[in-house]
């Protein structure tokens, strides 16, 4: 194999060591454990026009039966304000005014595939840029994040609009958040997701689509973990601005009781 393209060039499944490799930003190939090509998949191949899509992130489920991908258009942009650049021409130094440019939506899409590379569903998320994606251990749920910077945000220098979306196996959006979360921890039985971002951590139950509990901390949350039996939940926090940068660990049960 020569080359590879994508956020990383290769993604290996724990089931039969099937490997995904991106040949271009919107085309990936699947190989078996012996290196034999199984399948070539062109994402958004039914889309008309010259627009190029970038596979921004890709992840396999722990059981190796599913994988999810988040993409956005190559020409997407958060915008830029006008700047002044100093350019030297011979003995002269000139200041050149560079115009800014407005944000442009990348029309991000979220995909779910089975182990054989068959597309199960695709969903458009209403943001400019697709950020990150996670999938539960058995592939029953997909969590994706995106952000938007509108022209008004650009002109007034307001912060990005961040969102988090949770989809089930059928592609139904069961929950949205108006903020960006990370989700590196699920319960092994696909029942819970432990989300965190900023100084907040929350336990989300997939079957009900509800937040079981949510905690705010003085320090920033940088990691979360769930015990093997799904009964204990750990939150790691740290004060990055203070003199004491040592992490603090808090343990909770399913009801959020310390």
Mean pLDDT across all amino acids: 85
| C-alpha Rg (nearest Å) | 21 Å
The outline comes out as globular
Strand content range? over 45%
Total DSSP E strands: 21
Portion in helices: under 10%
How would you write the strand order of the largest sheet? 1-2-3-4
Stretches where pLDDT is under 50 for at least 5 consecutive residues are 1-7
Count of helical regions: 1
Q: How would a textbook summarize the main sheet?
A: 4 strands, antiparallel
Class from helix and strand fractions: mainly beta
The helix-strand sequence is EEEEEEEEEEEEHEEEEEEEEE
How far apart are the termini? Answer: 51 Å
Task: Describe the 3D structure.
- With 258 residues, the protein is mainly beta.
- Strand 15 (182-186) and strand 16 (192-197) form a beta hairpin.
- The protein is built from one helix and 21 strands.
- The protein is 2% helix and 51% strand.
- The strands form six sheets. Strands 1-2-3-4 form a four-stranded antiparallel beta sheet, with no helix packed on it. Strands 5-6-9-10 form a four-stranded antiparallel beta sheet, with no helix packed on it.
Structure summary:
The protein has 258 residues and is mostly beta strands.
Please give the structural blueprint.
Blueprint lengths: L9 E3 L6 E6 L2 E5 L5 E6 L10 E8 L5 E8 L9 E7 L2 E7 L10 E6 L4 E6 L4 E7 L5 E8 L2 H6 L4 E8 L4 E5 L4 E5 L5 E6 L2 E6 L4 E7 L3 E7 L6 E6 L9 E5 L6
Antiparallel strand pairs: 1-2, 2-3, 3-4, 5-6, 6-9, 7-8, 9-10, 11-12, 12-13, 13-14, 15-16, 16-17, 17-18, 19-20, 20-21
